[in-house]
Design goal:
Order of helices and strands: EHEHEEEEHHEHEEEEHEEEE
Number of domains: 1
Number of strands: 15
CATH topology: Double-stranded beta-helix
Largest sheet: 7 strands, mixed
Helix content: 10-25%
Radius of gyration: 19 Å
Distance between the termini: 25 Å
CATH superfamily: Clavaminate synthase-like
CATH architecture: 4-Layer Sandwich
Shape: globular
Number of helices: 6
Bound molecules: fe (ii) ion
Structural class: alpha+beta
C-alpha cells in the first residue's frame, strides 16, 4: 500500500493539488510526503487544508504551542515531559472508541530511533474479503462495541488515586461506542471490517444480543491482528525517515506503532482530520 510524493509544498499547492492529494489517500490508503520541513504552525496550516482538525480529548498529549498536535515523545524539554511516550503500541484505528472517528491520521516524526522505527498497518477491506462466508454474513449483520479502557494511559495526576475511581472516570468521559462491524467506505465503496484488537471488546447480533466473543477473536485472527510476530501476510511494515509526513485512511486501516526497545529519542507529531463525508453511511 501507499505512494510517495516528492516536491510537495503546501505554500504553493493549489486547491486542486490538495484535492488530488486527498484522492490519493483514499485510493492508496497511505501517502508519504517526503522532505517536509514544517514548523508546528505550518504543519497545522497544512492539516487545515486537508480537513477539520480534531484535537485529542486529553490535554496531556497536546503540543505546548498548538493544542491540535498530539505529541508522542520520550524526550523531556527543560525537565518537563511533553506529550506522552510510547503511544499506540497495539492494533487500533484512531478514535474507534469515540462516536465519530475521523477520516485521516497524519504523522510527522521529529526524532526517530536508529532502528525499529515505523508503523504496522493492515487493510481491513482485505481482511473482510478474507473471512469465510459464515463470518462474512455475521460481520455484515452485527455491531461491535469499542472502549479505550484497556489502553487508557495513567496520567501523572492519577498517581495515588484508587484504580476504581480512574476506571469510573474512563467510563464516564469515554463511554464505549457502538459501530457496525462492517461498513461501506463512503469514497471507495469498499466493505471495511471495522474491528481492532485494542478497543473492540463485544459483538452484538442485529437484535442487540451479545454474540460469543470467540467470533470476534476469529475475525481478529484472520485479519492478522493476533499475530505477535507480525508475520501475517496482511501486515505491512512502513518505516519512516525524517522529513516524512505520512497520511493514512483511518476508515480502512488499523495500525500498530513499532517502538524501539531501547530509549533512543523518539518524537512524532500527529494531526487527526475529518473529511466532508460521514465516517460511514
Ligand atoms: Fe494511532
Amino acid at each position: 500500500m501507499g505512494v510517495f510524493i516528492y516536491e510537495f509544498n503546501n505554500k504553493t499547492a493549489s486547491d486542486q493539488d490538495i484535492q488530488d492529494l486527498k484522492e490519493l489517500i483514499y485510493k492508496h490508503k497511505i501517502v508519504v510526503i517526503k522532505e517536509q520541513d514544517l514548523s508546528p504552525d505550518q504543519y497545522c496550516d497544512f492539516g487545515y487544508r486537508l480537513g477539520d482538525i480534531e484535537k485529542y480529548y486529553q490535554p496531556m498529549y497536546h503540543h505546548p504551542e498548538r493544542e491540535e498536535i498530539f505529541v508522542s515523545s520520550n524526550v523531556p524539554e527543560n525537565g518537563q515531559q511533553i506529550g506522552v511516550p510510547k503511544t499506540g503500541k497495539f492494533w487500533h484505528a484512531d478514535y474507534a472508541f469515540m462516536p465519530k472517528p475521523f477520516a485521516f491520521s497524519m504523522v510527522y516524526p521529529q526524532a526517530i530511533p536508529s532502528k525499529n522505527r515505523g508503523t504496522y498497518f493492515i487493510d481491513m477491506f482485505k481482511a473482510f474479503r478474507g473471512l469465510p462466508d459464515d463470518l462474512k454474513s455475521i460481520a455484515t449483520e452485527s455491531s461491535c462495541y469499542h472502549s479505550v479502557r484497556r489502553f487508557f494511559k495513567i496520567r501523572p495526576d492519577d498517581v495515588y488515586r484508587p484504580i476504581s475511581e480512574i476506571l469510573d472516570e474512563i467510563e464516564q468521559v469515554t463511554p464505549p461506542s457502538k459501530h457496525p462491524t462492517t461498513f461501506t467506505h463512503p469514497v471507495t465503496g469498499e466493505t471495511v471490517l471495522y474491528i481492532n484488537d485494542g478497543f473492540t471488546y463485544r459483538i452484538d447480533n442485529s437484535e442487540e444480543e451479545p454474540l460469543d466473543t470467540n467470533i470476534l477473536q476469529k475475525m481478529l485472527a484472520i485479519s492478522g491482528q493476533l499475530d505477535n510476530r507480525f508475520e501475517h501476510p496482511l501486515i505491512e511494515h512502513h518505516e519512516f525517515e525524517l522529513g516524512d509526513v505520512r497520511i493514512w485512511d483511518n476508515r480502512s486501516l488499523v495500525h500498530c506503532a513499532h517502538h524501539a526497545a531501547n530509549s533512543e529519542p523518539t518524537i512524532s507529531f500527529r494531526l487527526t482530520l475529518y473529511d466532508s463525508y460521514p465516517f460511514y453511511e
